[in-house]
Amino acid sequence: MKNLFLVFTILLACNQPGKTVVTDSPITPLSIPDTTAQMAPVSEVLTIEQGDISAAEFEKYRSTYKNIFDNNAGSFAAVNGVTTIPLTNGSASFKNNEGTPHDEDRLAYRYLGAIPALSKYLIEGKGYEYRFYLLLDKNSGAQDTINGIPFITPDKKWFVSYAANPNDEPTPTSEVTIYAVAPGAIAKAWQKTFKQLVKEVCWKDNNTAYLKLIPSEEKASAPGYIRLTIANGNTPATAVSPSWYGNYELVLGKGKEEQWQIQLQVTKEGAVFSETGLQVFNQYALSTSQDNGSLSLTFNKALEGGSTILRKEDHFGHLEAAGDHFAFKCPYLDIRTNNNNNNTYQLIKK
Asked: Residue 85 sits in which domain range?
């Protein structure tokens, strides 16, 4: 039994980087398979297509999405600082630390609910200035550490979770992770840090997740909405229609010397965004995809110049037909024009 406890402790330590998560007593009676007690490796790099969506599009699917995580599946409260959860064979016990020997050693466990379709329990671990989540297998007792509450696809093959990084500089960020669900294993398949804070998540279908983002800066109050589409082995976003091909133009700035011209050239290969003015010439190659009648643009690479405010992790913007003009949402231009309120720019197609 002593050897079993040592193995169990080592496996838990592998699952929580920077912190050793130790349950005071081992799961008993239980033999823990090495193949499921640690985060499974990823067999291939997951390809994710990112693009913008409208608030209406997000709300349409948020209102109908039902996460299969059940926060009412039983209640296992801590008794004398110990949370005990029954398993098929035996039980798992998690002992709190009230701050011994130091405040930094504080650690509290809390049962949150169950995911019956995956045969998992969800437990929150809250330490000194950090938080993590454990997926506990109901049968084997194996544990996987994830960074947030899982939002699961209808086919139960993927889930997405997120965590805020409040101490990041210059502003707080969010870490979004997509996990693959396989028999006996949970695999971290994709991860990305966003400069905005994630507010809400839902799945449109088995391949596409929708995220609501709120700016981390107080002066930028309007939320943004993006989609993440799993492209590996799945149907990608709708191919771009030739009707989008052409040149789109806009002039910004007041006064002849302060004006600069914006041009967006869309072809079957993608798009090129150019801005030209007094001592200004920047040009970027963008990836394009069509989704629900709009053209989504994602930064690819700088062709000429390049502004220091452009970051590859940002979605570049999206274009929608609006009568004789085209409505262009572009966070990059918002920053360039000192407008952090999600402005809509009217482009004319030439």
From this structure: 1-32+68-148
